[in-house]
Design goal:
The protein is α/β, with parallel strands linked by helices. Helices cover 42% and strands 18% of the residues. The strands form two sheets. A five-stranded mixed β-sheet has the order 3-2-1-4-5, sandwiched between helices. The chain binds 5'-O-[(R)-(carboxyoxy)(hydroxy)phosphoryl]adenosine (KG4) and zinc ion (ZN).
Length: 337
């Protein structure tokens, strides 16, 4: 019988200080997330220096809470997995340095994890991954379609050429006067309005799985400004509904097309925007008439957390991936390297 693995995950790439322990890559023992949303709200977005300072303040508190809730001790922990990148460098450094200090003090293996691999492996906390799979990653910093033929292998077949989907949501939200983070608020507002404005959809060249959201963002801004100048009254809920329809339409159609072309055994969705109700509904409908199973994690596993880092870290650990104590944060780490 093989021994159980208990991986401690640490995530500090943006504005959540998170620590989790995951058993055998599938079972969450504990998942603690300290959000900094309240501190960044008044600035309308994440302020990197403030994020780093909060991570420093919160890290030991979150770590202690995780161990207390788990009822495990250090002797149970197999290895420490930490987000190496991408993200805000000062924020990442807090997690990386914590993980290195703990690995040294407790004599545990140190496993570096790519943040997006973490988002992908959030799905493994729900159901086993089936290869080949297609992952749609939609977060504040990323919009990507990735083919995986095996654990730990990532082939990016499409990505955004400008703004990430979540970034577009946050910018449109700010324009509508909604507080940070705007994505969930635009989502909510969209359900109170209807698609009265025909915003553009950037399909790009035929067959391309890349995305572009900056044209849509500009179209929303121009529409609002023009309406204001003409003294017209546009309902914010209708703007939100029309914007969301455009984003969801492109994400859904490209994902479906890629899944059929690559003949995958599973489609998984990951990242903060995977929490979007409109996107979840639209993807479910798009795959209903196919034989391809669609997996979307529960909302709390879509946004940043450390259980996903521990889940991805388990596979990396089993594949022999290790970092030395000279591990550094890498704000522009590429997936698959
Ligand atoms: O994955 P995540 O927590 O952090 C990054 O790695 O970026 O994603 C955060 C992004 C933010 O842009 C946020 O506005 C967006 O996900 N988001 C949403 C929703 N919930 C979070 N966007 C649209 N609809 C939502 N319900
Ligand atoms: Zn993320």
């Amino acid at each position: 019988m093989t021994k159980d693995t208990y991986i401690l995950g640490i995530e500090t790439s943006c504005d959540e200080t998170a620590v989790a322990i995951v058993k055998n890559g599938h079972t969450i023992i504990v998942n603690v997330v300290a959000s900094q949303i309240e501190s960044h709200k008044r600035f309308g977005g994440v302020v990197p220096e403030i994020a780093s300072r909060h991570h420093v303040e919160q890290m030991t508190v979150v770590l202690e809470e995780a161990f207390r809730k788990s009822e495990l001790s250090w002797s149970d922990i197999t290895a420490i997995a930490v987000t190496e990148g991408p993200g805000l460098v000062g924020a990442l450094l807090v997690g990386v340095n914590t993980a290195k200090a703990l690995a040294f003090a407790k004599q545990k293996p140190l496993v570096p994890v790519h943040h997006i691999a973490g988002h992908i492996y959030a799905n493994q906390l729900v159901e086993s991954l089936k290869f080949p799979l297609l992952a749609l990653i939609v977060s504040g910093g990323h919009t990507e379609l990735v083919i995986m033929k095996a654990h730990g292998q990532y082939e990016v077949i499409g990505e955004t050429r400008d703004d990430a989907a979540g970034e577009a949501y946050d910018k449109v939200a700010r324009m509508l006067g909604l507080a940070y983070p705007g994505g969930p608020k635009v989502d909510q507002l969209a359900h109170e309005g209807s698609e009265t404005i025909d915003f553009p959809r950037a399909w790009l060249e035929p067959g391309s799985y890349d995305f572009s959201f900056s044209g849509l963002k500009s179209a929303v801004i121009n529409t609002v400004h023009n309406a204001k100048q003409r003294g017209e009254d546009l309902k914010p809920a209708d703007i939100a509904a029309s914007f969301q329809a455009s984003v969801v339409d492109v994400l859904t159609q490209k994902t479906r097309q890629a899944a059929l072309q690559y003949n995958v055994s599973q489609v998984i969705v990951a990242g903060g925007v995977a929490a979007n109700k409109g996107l979840r509904t639209s993807l479910k409908a798009a795959f209903a008439d196919t034989s391809i199973p669609l997996l979307i994690p529960p909302i709390e596993l879509c946004t940043d957390n450390a259980a996903m880092i521990a889940a991805a870290g388990t596979i990396a650990y089993e594949q022999g991936r290790r970092a030395d104590l000279d591990l550094n944060a890498n704000p522009s780490l590429i997936l698959g390297i």
